[in-house]
Amino acid sequence: MLALATLLTGCDFSVYSLPLPGGAKIKGPSYTVTVEFADILDLVPKSTVKVDDVTVGTVEKVWLDGYIAKVRIKLPKSLALPDNTHATIRQTSLLGEKFVSLSRPTGSEQPRGKLENGELIPLSRTTSNVEVEEVLSALSLLLNGGGVAQLQIITQELNKALTGNEPAIRDVLTQLNTFVGTLDQNKARIVTAITSVDALAKKLNAQKATLATAIDSLPKSIATLDKQRAALVKTLQALATLGNTATRVITSAQKDLVANLQSLYPILTKLAEAGANLPKSLELLFTYPFPDQAANAAKGDFTNLGITVDVNTQKALKGLLGLNLPTVGPTALPTGRISLPVHLPTSPGKSGGVLPTLPVPTGTATTCITVLGLPVCTPQLKRSGFDPDLARALMPGAVE
Protein backbone atom coordinates (compact mmCIF):
# COMPACT_ATOMS: atom_id res chain seq x y z
CA MET A 1 0.00 0.00 0.00
CA LEU A 2 2.86 2.32 0.90
CA ALA A 3 4.51 1.64 -2.44
CA LEU A 4 1.21 2.26 -4.25
CA ALA A 5 0.73 5.55 -2.40
CA THR A 6 4.28 6.57 -3.20
CA LEU A 7 3.69 5.75 -6.87
CA LEU A 8 0.48 7.75 -6.99
CA THR A 9 2.12 10.69 -5.25
CA GLY A 10 5.04 10.79 -7.65
CA CYS A 11 2.69 10.91 -10.64
CA ASP A 12 0.39 13.81 -11.39
CA PHE A 13 -2.69 11.86 -10.45
CA SER A 14 -6.27 13.13 -10.07
CA VAL A 15 -9.46 11.24 -9.51
CA TYR A 16 -10.95 13.19 -12.42
CA SER A 17 -8.52 11.37 -14.71
CA LEU A 18 -10.20 8.07 -13.87
CA PRO A 19 -13.01 6.91 -16.14
CA LEU A 20 -16.40 7.71 -14.60
CA PRO A 21 -19.69 6.07 -15.38
CA GLY A 22 -22.19 8.05 -17.47
CA GLY A 23 -21.30 11.41 -18.96
CA ALA A 24 -20.86 12.33 -22.59
CA LYS A 25 -18.59 10.27 -24.74
CA ILE A 26 -17.27 11.95 -27.89
CA LYS A 27 -16.43 9.68 -30.76
CA GLY A 28 -14.31 10.93 -33.61
CA PRO A 29 -12.48 14.29 -33.98
CA SER A 30 -13.12 16.99 -31.38
CA TYR A 31 -12.01 20.51 -30.42
CA THR A 32 -11.80 22.48 -27.19
CA VAL A 33 -13.11 25.90 -26.24
CA THR A 34 -12.38 27.97 -23.11
CA VAL A 35 -15.31 29.71 -21.38
CA GLU A 36 -15.03 32.52 -18.76
CA PHE A 37 -17.52 32.74 -15.85
CA ALA A 38 -17.89 35.18 -12.98
CA ASP A 39 -19.12 32.29 -10.79
CA ILE A 40 -19.14 28.59 -11.70
CA LEU A 41 -21.01 27.56 -8.50
CA ASP A 42 -20.14 23.87 -7.91
CA LEU A 43 -19.43 22.95 -11.52
CA VAL A 44 -16.85 20.14 -11.68
CA PRO A 45 -14.92 18.39 -14.45
CA LYS A 46 -16.73 15.60 -16.30
CA SER A 47 -19.92 17.70 -16.17
CA THR A 48 -21.93 17.69 -19.37
CA VAL A 49 -22.17 20.37 -22.03
CA LYS A 50 -25.57 20.76 -23.73
CA VAL A 51 -26.95 22.59 -26.74
CA ASP A 52 -30.76 23.00 -26.80
CA ASP A 53 -30.90 20.57 -23.81
CA VAL A 54 -29.08 17.88 -25.81
CA THR A 55 -25.76 16.59 -24.43
CA VAL A 56 -23.01 17.26 -26.96
CA GLY A 57 -19.75 17.54 -24.94
CA THR A 58 -18.05 17.47 -21.58
CA VAL A 59 -16.12 19.71 -19.18
CA GLU A 60 -12.44 18.89 -19.22
CA LYS A 61 -10.92 21.34 -16.73
CA VAL A 62 -11.92 24.09 -14.29
CA TRP A 63 -9.45 26.63 -12.88
CA LEU A 64 -9.24 30.15 -11.47
CA ASP A 65 -7.47 32.96 -13.32
CA GLY A 66 -7.38 35.95 -11.00
CA TYR A 67 -11.02 36.70 -10.16
CA ILE A 68 -12.35 34.92 -13.24
CA ALA A 69 -13.21 31.20 -13.36
CA LYS A 70 -12.29 29.46 -16.61
CA VAL A 71 -13.77 26.25 -17.94
CA ARG A 72 -12.36 24.20 -20.82
CA ILE A 73 -14.99 22.22 -22.66
CA LYS A 74 -14.62 19.53 -25.31
CA LEU A 75 -16.98 19.46 -28.29
CA PRO A 76 -17.28 17.16 -31.32
CA LYS A 77 -15.87 18.43 -34.60
CA SER A 78 -19.23 17.86 -36.27
CA LEU A 79 -20.91 20.47 -34.03
CA ALA A 80 -20.93 23.85 -35.79
CA LEU A 81 -21.52 26.84 -33.53
CA PRO A 82 -21.27 30.57 -34.37
CA ASP A 83 -18.36 32.61 -33.07
CA ASN A 84 -20.68 34.69 -30.83
CA THR A 85 -22.15 31.71 -28.96
CA HIS A 86 -23.45 32.35 -25.41
CA ALA A 87 -22.76 30.05 -22.39
CA THR A 88 -24.78 29.61 -19.18
CA ILE A 89 -24.36 27.38 -16.10
CA ARG A 90 -27.68 25.65 -15.44
CA GLN A 91 -29.07 22.79 -13.30
CA THR A 92 -30.80 19.65 -14.44
CA SER A 93 -33.35 20.05 -11.59
CA LEU A 94 -33.88 22.03 -8.37
CA LEU A 95 -31.17 20.06 -6.57
CA GLY A 96 -29.63 18.40 -9.65
CA GLU A 97 -26.16 18.62 -11.11
CA LYS A 98 -24.73 21.63 -12.90
CA PHE A 99 -23.95 21.68 -16.62
CA VAL A 100 -22.80 24.18 -19.25
CA SER A 101 -25.50 25.22 -21.71
CA LEU A 102 -24.44 26.68 -25.08
CA SER A 103 -26.92 28.76 -27.10
CA ARG A 104 -26.84 30.61 -30.38
CA PRO A 105 -27.52 34.40 -30.30
CA THR A 106 -31.17 35.46 -30.58
CA GLY A 107 -33.09 38.67 -31.12
CA SER A 108 -31.38 41.56 -32.87
CA GLU A 109 -27.95 39.89 -32.60
CA GLN A 110 -27.20 37.82 -35.68
CA PRO A 111 -24.92 34.76 -35.67
CA ARG A 112 -21.52 35.41 -37.19
CA GLY A 113 -18.40 33.38 -37.87
CA LYS A 114 -17.70 29.87 -36.62
CA LEU A 115 -16.41 28.69 -33.26
CA GLU A 116 -12.99 27.10 -33.79
CA ASN A 117 -10.55 25.08 -31.69
CA GLY A 118 -8.83 27.03 -28.90
CA GLU A 119 -11.18 30.06 -29.07
CA LEU A 120 -12.50 31.90 -26.03
CA ILE A 121 -16.07 32.71 -25.03
CA PRO A 122 -15.56 35.92 -22.99
CA LEU A 123 -17.19 36.92 -19.75
CA SER A 124 -19.54 39.32 -21.60
CA ARG A 125 -21.33 36.34 -23.21
CA THR A 126 -21.67 34.07 -20.13
CA THR A 127 -24.15 33.97 -17.21
CA SER A 128 -25.05 31.82 -14.20
CA ASN A 129 -28.48 30.87 -12.88
CA VAL A 130 -29.53 31.86 -9.37
CA GLU A 131 -28.88 29.19 -6.81
CA VAL A 132 -31.64 27.86 -4.56
CA GLU A 133 -29.46 28.71 -1.58
CA GLU A 134 -29.30 32.32 -2.67
CA VAL A 135 -33.09 32.53 -2.98
CA LEU A 136 -33.62 30.94 0.45
CA SER A 137 -31.02 33.19 2.10
CA ALA A 138 -32.62 36.32 0.60
CA LEU A 139 -36.05 35.13 1.72
CA SER A 140 -34.82 34.44 5.24
CA LEU A 141 -33.29 37.92 5.37
CA LEU A 142 -36.62 39.41 4.36
CA LEU A 143 -38.63 37.37 6.84
CA ASN A 144 -36.31 37.66 9.82
CA GLY A 145 -34.66 41.06 9.57
CA GLY A 146 -37.01 42.79 7.11
CA GLY A 147 -40.33 44.57 7.48
CA VAL A 148 -42.65 41.64 6.96
CA ALA A 149 -43.79 41.85 10.57
CA GLN A 150 -44.90 45.41 9.95
CA LEU A 151 -46.91 44.60 6.80
CA GLN A 152 -50.11 44.07 8.83
CA ILE A 153 -49.69 47.41 10.61
CA ILE A 154 -48.99 49.17 7.32
CA THR A 155 -52.10 47.57 5.77
CA GLN A 156 -54.29 48.60 8.72
CA GLU A 157 -53.07 52.20 8.63
CA LEU A 158 -53.63 52.38 4.86
CA ASN A 159 -57.18 51.10 5.33
CA LYS A 160 -57.85 53.75 7.96
CA ALA A 161 -56.46 56.50 5.73
CA LEU A 162 -58.36 55.41 2.63
CA THR A 163 -61.72 54.59 4.26
CA GLY A 164 -64.23 57.36 3.46
CA ASN A 165 -61.85 59.14 1.07
CA GLU A 166 -62.39 56.93 -1.95
CA PRO A 167 -63.78 59.70 -4.25
CA ALA A 168 -60.97 62.11 -3.41
CA ILE A 169 -58.32 59.41 -3.84
CA ARG A 170 -59.91 58.33 -7.13
CA ASP A 171 -59.86 61.94 -8.31
CA VAL A 172 -56.21 62.28 -7.28
CA LEU A 173 -55.33 59.12 -9.16
CA THR A 174 -57.20 60.39 -12.24
CA GLN A 175 -55.36 63.71 -12.12
CA LEU A 176 -52.07 61.91 -11.56
CA ASN A 177 -52.77 59.70 -14.57
CA THR A 178 -53.53 62.79 -16.69
CA PHE A 179 -50.39 64.51 -15.43
CA VAL A 180 -48.17 61.52 -16.14
CA GLY A 181 -49.77 61.05 -19.59
CA THR A 182 -49.17 64.71 -20.45
CA LEU A 183 -45.56 64.39 -19.33
CA ASP A 184 -45.16 61.31 -21.51
CA GLN A 185 -46.65 63.12 -24.55
CA ASN A 186 -44.32 66.09 -24.06
CA LYS A 187 -41.28 63.95 -23.28
CA ALA A 188 -39.42 65.17 -26.37
CA ARG A 189 -40.12 68.83 -25.53
CA ILE A 190 -39.02 68.32 -21.93
CA VAL A 191 -35.77 66.72 -23.10
CA THR A 192 -35.25 69.62 -25.54
CA ALA A 193 -35.89 72.15 -22.77
CA ILE A 194 -33.43 70.38 -20.45
CA THR A 195 -30.86 70.32 -23.25
CA SER A 196 -31.38 74.04 -23.87
CA VAL A 197 -31.03 74.78 -20.16
CA ASP A 198 -27.81 72.77 -20.14
CA ALA A 199 -26.48 74.77 -23.12
CA LEU A 200 -27.49 78.02 -21.40
CA ALA A 201 -25.74 76.94 -18.21
CA LYS A 202 -22.57 76.22 -20.20
CA LYS A 203 -22.69 79.66 -21.84
CA LEU A 204 -23.29 81.33 -18.47
CA ASN A 205 -20.38 79.42 -17.01
CA ALA A 206 -18.17 80.59 -19.89
CA GLN A 207 -19.24 84.20 -19.21
CA LYS A 208 -18.82 83.88 -15.45
CA ALA A 209 -16.23 86.65 -15.20
CA THR A 210 -18.37 89.05 -17.24
CA LEU A 211 -21.44 88.25 -15.11
CA ALA A 212 -19.45 88.82 -11.94
CA THR A 213 -18.32 92.21 -13.24
CA ALA A 214 -21.90 93.10 -14.18
CA ILE A 215 -23.18 92.08 -10.74
CA ASP A 216 -20.46 94.15 -9.08
CA SER A 217 -21.52 97.16 -11.18
CA LEU A 218 -25.21 96.79 -10.30
CA PRO A 219 -25.06 98.73 -6.99
CA LYS A 220 -23.59 101.79 -8.72
CA SER A 221 -26.16 101.56 -11.51
CA ILE A 222 -29.00 101.24 -9.00
CA ALA A 223 -27.67 104.23 -7.05
CA THR A 224 -27.57 106.29 -10.27
CA LEU A 225 -31.13 105.28 -11.12
CA ASP A 226 -32.21 106.20 -7.58
CA LYS A 227 -30.75 109.69 -8.04
CA GLN A 228 -32.60 110.09 -11.33
CA ARG A 229 -35.86 108.69 -9.99
CA ALA A 230 -37.68 112.03 -9.98
CA ALA A 231 -36.64 112.74 -13.58
CA LEU A 232 -37.67 109.24 -14.65
CA VAL A 233 -41.07 109.68 -12.99
CA LYS A 234 -41.59 112.98 -14.80
CA THR A 235 -40.53 111.38 -18.08
CA LEU A 236 -43.02 108.55 -17.64
CA GLN A 237 -45.76 111.01 -16.75
CA ALA A 238 -44.93 113.06 -19.84
CA LEU A 239 -45.04 109.90 -21.94
CA ALA A 240 -48.44 109.05 -20.50
CA THR A 241 -49.71 112.56 -21.34
CA LEU A 242 -48.24 112.28 -24.83
CA GLY A 243 -49.93 108.93 -25.31
CA ASN A 244 -53.29 110.31 -24.25
CA THR A 245 -52.88 113.32 -26.55
CA ALA A 246 -51.82 111.16 -29.47
CA THR A 247 -54.77 108.87 -28.89
CA ARG A 248 -57.17 111.82 -28.81
CA VAL A 249 -55.68 113.33 -31.99
CA ILE A 250 -55.73 110.04 -33.86
CA THR A 251 -59.30 109.35 -32.74
CA SER A 252 -60.54 112.80 -33.83
CA ALA A 253 -58.64 112.70 -37.14
CA GLN A 254 -59.53 109.12 -37.94
CA LYS A 255 -62.21 109.92 -40.52
CA ASP A 256 -60.07 112.57 -42.25
CA LEU A 257 -57.07 110.24 -42.29
CA VAL A 258 -59.13 107.46 -43.83
CA ALA A 259 -60.57 109.89 -46.41
CA ASN A 260 -57.07 111.16 -47.30
CA LEU A 261 -55.79 107.64 -47.74
CA GLN A 262 -58.77 106.79 -49.94
CA SER A 263 -58.09 109.91 -52.02
CA LEU A 264 -54.45 108.97 -52.37
CA TYR A 265 -55.35 105.51 -53.62
CA PRO A 266 -56.22 106.54 -57.24
CA ILE A 267 -53.10 108.76 -57.44
CA LEU A 268 -50.82 106.01 -56.22
CA THR A 269 -52.55 103.55 -58.55
CA LYS A 270 -51.91 105.79 -61.57
CA LEU A 271 -48.32 106.37 -60.48
CA ALA A 272 -47.85 102.61 -60.30
CA GLU A 273 -49.41 102.24 -63.75
CA ALA A 274 -47.06 104.93 -65.13
CA GLY A 275 -44.20 102.61 -64.30
CA ALA A 276 -41.01 103.43 -66.20
CA ASN A 277 -42.61 106.35 -68.10
CA LEU A 278 -42.52 108.65 -65.06
CA PRO A 279 -38.70 108.60 -64.58
CA LYS A 280 -38.22 109.16 -68.32
CA SER A 281 -40.52 112.21 -68.26
CA LEU A 282 -38.59 113.69 -65.35
CA GLU A 283 -35.43 113.74 -67.48
CA LEU A 284 -36.82 116.82 -69.28
CA LEU A 285 -36.56 118.87 -66.08
CA PHE A 286 -32.77 119.13 -66.41
CA THR A 287 -32.77 120.17 -70.12
CA TYR A 288 -36.03 122.19 -70.37
CA PRO A 289 -37.13 123.51 -72.85
CA PHE A 290 -34.91 121.25 -74.95
CA PRO A 291 -35.15 117.44 -74.89
CA ASP A 292 -32.46 115.30 -73.35
CA GLN A 293 -31.02 114.51 -76.80
CA ALA A 294 -30.32 118.23 -77.42
CA ALA A 295 -26.92 117.85 -75.76
CA ASN A 296 -25.84 115.57 -78.63
CA ALA A 297 -26.30 118.48 -81.13
CA ALA A 298 -23.49 120.56 -79.61
CA LYS A 299 -20.17 119.85 -81.34
CA GLY A 300 -17.34 121.98 -80.02
CA ASP A 301 -18.33 125.68 -80.12
CA PHE A 302 -21.13 125.22 -82.73
CA THR A 303 -24.62 123.73 -82.52
CA ASN A 304 -26.02 121.66 -85.37
CA LEU A 305 -29.59 122.58 -86.18
CA GLY A 306 -31.89 121.37 -88.93
CA ILE A 307 -34.69 123.76 -90.09
CA THR A 308 -37.62 122.77 -92.29
CA VAL A 309 -39.17 125.80 -94.07
CA ASP A 310 -42.51 125.76 -95.94
CA VAL A 311 -41.94 127.97 -99.00
CA ASN A 312 -44.81 129.44 -101.00
CA THR A 313 -43.10 131.64 -103.61
CA GLN A 314 -46.31 133.46 -104.61
CA LYS A 315 -46.98 134.61 -101.07
CA ALA A 316 -43.29 135.35 -100.42
CA LEU A 317 -42.88 137.59 -103.48
CA LYS A 318 -46.23 139.21 -102.92
CA GLY A 319 -45.22 140.09 -99.38
CA LEU A 320 -41.70 141.20 -100.29
CA LEU A 321 -42.31 142.98 -103.64
CA GLY A 322 -46.00 143.72 -103.69
CA LEU A 323 -46.41 141.70 -106.96
CA ASN A 324 -49.44 139.75 -108.03
CA LEU A 325 -47.96 136.73 -109.82
CA PRO A 326 -50.05 134.10 -111.59
CA THR A 327 -50.69 130.90 -109.65
CA VAL A 328 -51.28 128.82 -112.78
CA GLY A 329 -49.77 128.80 -116.24
CA PRO A 330 -46.22 128.67 -117.50
CA THR A 331 -45.15 131.60 -115.32
CA ALA A 332 -46.55 130.22 -112.06
CA LEU A 333 -44.00 129.98 -109.25
CA PRO A 334 -43.38 126.59 -107.60
CA THR A 335 -44.26 125.92 -103.96
CA GLY A 336 -42.86 123.29 -101.63
CA ARG A 337 -40.79 122.54 -98.51
CA ILE A 338 -37.06 123.23 -98.34
CA SER A 339 -34.82 121.78 -95.62
CA LEU A 340 -31.76 123.91 -94.99
CA PRO A 341 -28.89 122.91 -92.68
CA VAL A 342 -27.91 125.88 -90.58
CA HIS A 343 -24.81 126.06 -88.36
CA LEU A 344 -25.21 128.61 -85.61
CA PRO A 345 -22.14 129.70 -83.62
CA THR A 346 -22.53 128.92 -79.92
CA SER A 347 -19.61 131.09 -78.78
CA PRO A 348 -17.92 134.27 -80.03
CA GLY A 349 -15.50 133.47 -82.86
CA LYS A 350 -14.14 135.27 -85.85
CA SER A 351 -17.61 136.57 -86.64
CA GLY A 352 -18.09 137.89 -83.10
CA GLY A 353 -20.68 135.22 -82.24
CA VAL A 354 -23.65 136.96 -83.98
CA LEU A 355 -25.49 136.19 -87.18
CA PRO A 356 -24.40 138.32 -90.21
CA THR A 357 -26.92 140.92 -91.41
CA LEU A 358 -28.17 140.77 -94.97
CA PRO A 359 -27.31 143.88 -97.06
CA VAL A 360 -30.28 145.95 -98.24
CA PRO A 361 -29.87 147.85 -101.57
CA THR A 362 -29.78 151.62 -101.15
CA GLY A 363 -29.18 154.60 -103.47
CA THR A 364 -31.05 156.29 -106.31
CA ALA A 365 -29.76 154.21 -109.21
CA THR A 366 -32.36 152.20 -110.99
CA THR A 367 -31.80 148.51 -110.60
CA CYS A 368 -33.95 145.81 -112.16
CA ILE A 369 -33.92 142.08 -111.79
CA THR A 370 -35.92 139.47 -113.55
CA VAL A 371 -37.99 137.09 -111.44
CA LEU A 372 -39.39 134.25 -113.50
CA GLY A 373 -39.38 136.48 -116.57
CA LEU A 374 -40.97 139.52 -114.89
CA PRO A 375 -38.92 142.76 -114.40
CA VAL A 376 -38.70 144.10 -110.86
CA CYS A 377 -37.00 147.52 -110.51
CA THR A 378 -35.48 149.70 -107.78
CA PRO A 379 -38.57 151.37 -106.30
CA GLN A 380 -40.18 148.04 -105.51
CA LEU A 381 -36.91 146.66 -104.14
CA LYS A 382 -36.50 149.64 -101.79
CA ARG A 383 -40.04 149.36 -100.54
CA SER A 384 -39.67 145.69 -99.76
CA GLY A 385 -36.04 145.74 -98.59
CA PHE A 386 -35.39 142.84 -101.00
CA ASP A 387 -31.77 141.91 -101.71
CA PRO A 388 -31.17 140.52 -105.22
CA ASP A 389 -28.10 138.60 -104.05
CA LEU A 390 -30.12 136.90 -101.33
CA ALA A 391 -32.90 136.11 -103.81
CA ARG A 392 -30.39 134.55 -106.20
CA ALA A 393 -28.96 132.46 -103.36
CA LEU A 394 -32.40 131.30 -102.27
CA MET A 395 -33.84 130.70 -105.73
CA PRO A 396 -31.04 130.04 -108.21
CA GLY A 397 -32.30 130.07 -111.75
CA ALA A 398 -35.51 131.91 -110.86
CA VAL A 399 -33.86 135.31 -110.27
CA GLU A 400 -31.62 136.96 -112.87
Structure description:
By secondary structure, the chain is α+β, with helices and mostly antiparallel strands. Among the domains are: 119 residues, no CATH class; 32 residues. The protein contains twelve helices and 13 strands. A hairpin with a 2-residue loop joins strand 9 and strand 10. The longest helix is centred in the middle third of the chain and has 24 residues.
Topology (elements, then pairings):
Blueprint: H1 2-10, E1 30-37, E2 48-51, E3 54-65, E4 68-76, E5 86-91, E6 98-103, E7 120-121, E8 126-128, H2 132-145, H3 151-162, H4 166-185, H5 187-206, H6 208-227, H7 229-252, H8 254-274, H9 277-282, E9 298-299, E10 302-312, H10 313-321, E11 335-345, E12 369-371, E13 374-376, H11 378-384, H12 388-394
Parallel strand pairs: 1-7, 2-6, 5-8
Antiparallel strand pairs: 1-4, 2-3, 3-4, 5-6, 9-10, 10-11, 12-13
Domain Mce/MlaD: 30-103
InterPro entries: Mce, Mce/MlaD, Mce_C, MlaD_Phospholipid_Transporter
Protein name: Phospholipid/cholesterol/gamma-HCH transport system substrate-binding protein
In short:
By secondary structure, the chain is an alpha+beta fold. Among the domains are: 119 residues, no CATH class; 32 residues. The chain contains 12 helices and 13 strands.
Summary tags:
single chain, 400 residues, alpha+beta, 20% strand
